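Session log. Operator J.P. requested a structure for one protein chain; no other inputs attached. Running the standard single-chain path with token output.
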Amino acid sequence: MKSGLKIRWTEEATKNLENIIIYLETNWTPKELKKFFRKLEKQILLLSLFPEAYPVSLTKKRIHRCILTKNLTIYYTIEDDFLILLSIFDTRQHPSKAKI
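Structure written below.
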């Protein structure tokens, strides 16, 4: 099995994830949290193996958009041997707040 692209998190994506974790820890059970993190890890692995599987954003060229859940979208780009996670955006916010 091929190893896939290396993952690089931007400061924005890291900050997004930290905010998501704070919210989830307050509002979800430990079992739900564990399930969410397994889903996130699996999705990032799939992105690294098949980075072109998800469509390019309609507004930004070279930025791919992957729907993780009905409320979270992962934005990423591909540079050389890296999958760069740009943002994990909560879609309940106004799209203008997405920093990608």
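Operator note: Residues 30-49 form the longest helix (20 residues).
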